[in-house]
């Protein structure tokens, strides 16, 4: 992750802290690896949940409409953004002045993945036109009443250049759409990605690159496209950091898109990084494209919920 200036880091952090939404402090947290088996109310409302999340982000942070907070977000939410306390009061108080300060702010939603009670949104947040802005992944959990009940996020400044030549958001593989594939594809896509992820990052076995398509497209700005460079990079990385620990916290999958929210640590005592990896899986079971957002876990937090 590239280093940003103190001013832009503070502004972007406050903006994304304001995005935070969540649930009851006494509510049990989501599964540590993936959404629980979907109940009928979750399955029936997947499209509605997706629409609500996009509406909240757009109306609140582009239009300054705080009425969406009371309508769609629980007042006693669980917040995982380390810069924001629990509750919606600060969110409503901040949104109006934010739009006044940045009247051209754009919350450019790139892709949305929905599974069970979770909605994951991958966006480019730009405060001022002409700037690169930040890459953001927000994860929202809904309660049975259709209210946003919990929120996690990961935020990274968009760098000026990338090794692969790809930006952090576009879809390069065919078909060039940001929409997930059909839902019947979800289970097989999730199995492929979790198999790859665990073999490479949990067991540190670089033979996992066998899961990748020959034309594997990379959107991490520091990594080239293709499997050969990836294998070499991780082999060197595992040699340098033999105590590296990667813990999968939750997986959200829809169609050919699978997102993994994880805690990366270089050693057992390292605070580490919060990471969301997003993979696209071809019909033949090969992973063809990858995006990610990476954020250092800070020493202190405005809430007691951790980033995970």
Automatic annotation (TrEMBL):
Keywords (alphabetical) are:
Signal
At the top level, the lineage of the source is Bacteria
* Domain SnoaL-like: from-to ranges: 60-151, 193-290
Leader sequence range is 1-32
Q: Which GO terms describe its biological process?
A: polyketide metabolic process
The answer to keyword Cytoplasm applying to this record is: no
Positions the record marks as coiled coil are none
Q: What InterPro entries does its record include? A: Cyclase_SnoaL-like (IPR009959), NTF2-like_dom_sf (IPR032710), SnoaL-like (IPR037401)
Q: Which PANTHER family match?
A: ESTER CYCLASE, POLYKETIDE CYCLASE SNOAL-LIKE DOMAIN
Protein name stated in the entry: Putative SnoaL-like aldol condensation-catalyzing enzyme
From which organism does this entry originate?
Answer: Lentzea atacamensis
